[in-house]
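Class, carefully examine what follows:
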Amino acid sequence: MARPKKNNAEYYTHDADMRNDVKIRALRRKFSHTGYAVWNYLLETLTDSDFFEVEWEEINIELLAADYDVSVEEFTEIVEYCVKIGLLQLENDVLRSDAHQNRFRELLDNRVKKSEAGKKGMAKRWGQNDNIVIENDNSVITPLQKTITENNKVKESKVKESKENNNIDRESKKAETAKRFAPPSVEEVQSYISEKEYSVDAESFVAFYTSKNWFVGKNKMKDWHAAIVTWEKRNNDFPAKKQTTTKNVNDIWEKQK
């Protein structure tokens, strides 16, 4: 596993006469040894932080104040004074020291150069193969890994395409089924009844199934002609009353549930 890229440092140089810098003297004069101690604490914190800066927000302020053994109010006042005299910079809720960052610019530049040199060295060790890819974290992608990755992407694409096609097919079938059946008008039903010489009442038939949204039980009706045949047979089962109405058909359905 490649080592993570470092954007901080393990230590910082401390000038022997730092206490005599004009800004540091102003800080010491205003906050005595507490101000000087907090300033050095901050330099340590910035050195250990990614890109030598920290987020200036409530929880960090409380944690740092507790770590430095000062109150939040005193810590905030010291930092605000450091920003005022230019020892610290605060922009977009990010606290940093430009002078402190500049001390490490060469260090970060050297790391970039070493990283580039490391990539070249790794490519050389792998036979200077043009197909080898060196990532930013110095990890290596070999031709075999590249092929496996590409094949996996192709498989994932095919699976996704297959699922999409299946969904489209299902939707198409539903649409086709819905399109295939169209509720008939009273005139169409009457015409069919007359043609077959049935005794079913067309208006009762249409009214009954319209009230049920043309469902037969839990399923959508597929063929209203077949439903009329069923109604006609039920009429024949009740010779005393040939003309089928919505009421007696409802009674029939209820008895058969």
In short: Residues 143-180 form the longest helix (38 residues). The longest strand covers residues 53-55.
